[in-house]
């Protein structure tokens, strides 16, 4: 994949593009991200943060979003220059790291689907996305261009 496919992350380490569920489970266990339960389910280690953090939800405030988002304590604005600065630091953090890339569709109705690429530092985060999103078939993967990219960098401390 060309570098732009990795959201501008320079020189990533091993990149696993659309790995199978089994490969993601194996990677998560080998990397110490979780263990297998007796029933075969992956039990992930989440650390201190065990749930959602609704007060940590930010959107870049720019022309379109400024008018379409209901701003408040849940939907907080993030200035474009701060986003660019943070993004640069995260990309540097992820350089040379093993990454897991998942492509899929979000939205149940194909008329309203969004093509999404997730670039994850943890295998179990990629597994979550693989299970949650609608999967692409071989012909859909060919020449796939995402509408949105999500970068998951949980070991980066902002």
Task: Provide a count of the helices.
Answer: 5
Which fold name corresponds to the CATH topology? Phosphoenolpyruvate Carboxykinase, domain 1
Extract low-pLDDT stretches: none
Radius of gyration: 17 Å
N→C terminal distance: 28 Å
What does this structure look like?
The chain has 158 residues and is an alpha/beta fold. It has a single domain, classed as Phosphoenolpyruvate Carboxykinase, domain 1 (3-Layer(aba) Sandwich), CATH 3.40.449. Helices cover 28% and strands 22% of the residues. The chain has 5 helices and 8 strands, in the order βαβββαβαββααβ. The strands form 3 sheets. Strands 1-6-7-8 form a 4-stranded mixed beta sheet, covered by helices on one side. Strands 2-3 form a two-stranded antiparallel ribbon. Strand 6 and strand 7 form a beta hairpin. The model has no long low-confidence stretch (mean pLDDT 88).
């Amino acid at each position: 994949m060309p570098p732009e496919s990795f959201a501008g992350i320079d020189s990533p380490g091993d990149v696993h593009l659309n790995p199978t569920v089994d490969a993601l489970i194996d990677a998560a266990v080998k990397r110490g991200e979780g263990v297998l339960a007796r029933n075969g389910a992956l039990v992930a280690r989440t650390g201190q943060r065990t749930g959602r953090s609704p007060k940590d939800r930010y959107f870049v405030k720019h022309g379109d979003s400024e008018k379409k988002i209901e701003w408040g304590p849940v939907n907080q604005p993030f200035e474009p220059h701060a986003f660019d600065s943070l993004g640069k630091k995260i990309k540097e953090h992820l350089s040379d790291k093993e990454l897991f890339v998942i492509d899929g569709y979000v939205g149940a109705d194909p008329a309203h689907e969004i093509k999404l690429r997730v670039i994850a530092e943890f295998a179990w985060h990629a597994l979550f996305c693989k299970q949650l999103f609608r999967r692409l078939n071989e012909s859909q993967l060919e020449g796939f261009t995402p509408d949105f990219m999500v970068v998951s960098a949980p070991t980066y401390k902002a």
